[in-house]
Amino acid sequence: MLKIAVCVSGGGTNLQAIIDAIADGRIKNTEIVRVISNKKDAYALERAAKAGIDAVAVARGDYPDKESFQDALISAVDEAAPDLVVLAGFLVVLPEKMVAKYNRRIINIHPSLIPSFCGDGFYGLRVHEAALARGVKVTGATVHFVDEGTDTGPIIKQKAVEILEGDTPEVLQKRVMEQAEWKILPATINEIAAGKIKIG
Ligand code: GAR
User: Fold this and answer.
1) Catalytic entry in 34, 39, 47, 110
2) Is 128 part of the annotated catalytic residue set?
3) Which of 13, 18, 19 to mutate to test the pocket of ligand 1 (most atoms within 8 A of CB)?
4) What is the pLDDT of residue 57?
5) What is the DSSP secondary structure assignment for residue 34, as one 8-state letter?
6) Contact 116, 136 (CB under 8 A)
7) pLDDT given at position 53
8) 80: Cβ below 6 Å to ligand 1?
9) Which among 17, 29, 91, 148 is most buried, taking Cβ atoms within 10 Å?
10) CA-to-CA distance for 111 and 61, rounded, in angstroms?
């Protein structure tokens, strides 16, 4: 059984996609052992509660400095003893020591075809605003291992999504989620659980 911890910051639709895929068997042999949010009011926490999953908030504001916040974050992950950490819309730059400790055992979903529209400052809706501003005709999503850089780790899966005339960032975000993110993230976790993709 693959034990996963899922880190979130917001709405948690990718978390929901994982919960649903476990429930209907598209992800086999996997258990979400903990959901960790850096925002206390993240709707993702409610999704976890509804699914009966252990969920905790580790908010920067509750700690006197960055280091103690980062240590609390690492402890929250360590306590759950996951085999794999899934960043599903987690908008915190991971502490270097966490990346080192969980080397090749952390994956992230990013809403573009890396190396386009990624790196510092490219997250959430901003990614889609940038894609539309550049006028690209195809975008998509990427699942990758997390290394010490921002969106620089080895790519595991990508799926392309068409940009259509009249798209707004919100419309495009939804299409990328539906057609790419909610598919390739569960598919990657299932392949890791099946041993088809090797983790650290
Ligand atoms: C998703 O689109 C995810 O790819 C993106 O944030 C959104 C979270 O939505 N992540 C990044 O931009 C990371 N750089 P969700 O909370 O509904 O899953």
Assistant:
1) 110
2) no
3) 13
4) 98
5) E
6) yes
7) 98
8) no
9) 17
10) 27
Q: Is the CB of 112 under 6 A from ligand 1?
A: no
Residue 70: C-alpha distances to residues 27, 51, 146, 167 (Å): 30, 27, 16, 38
Candidates 1.20.1300.10, 2.30.42.10, 1.10.3080.10, 3.40.50.170; CATH matching 2-193 = 3.40.50.170
- Please tell me if the CB atom of residue 140 comes closer than 6 angstroms to any atom of ligand 1: no
Task: Find out whether the beta carbon of 153 lies less than 6 Å from any atom of ligand 1.
Answer: no
Question: What per-residue confidence (pLDDT) applies to 131?
Answer: 98
Q: In sequence order, what DSSP letters do the residues of 124-147 get, joined into one string? A: THHHHHHHHHHT-SEEEEEEEE--
Mean pLDDT, consecutive 10-residue stretches, the chain (200 aa), reads: 98 98 98 98 98 98 97 98 98 95 97 97 97 98 97 98 98 98 98 97
Q: Evaluate if pTM is beyond 0.90.
A: yes
Per-domain residue ranges for the chain?
A: 2-193
Q: Does 169 sit in the ligand 1 pocket, CB within 6 Å?
A: no
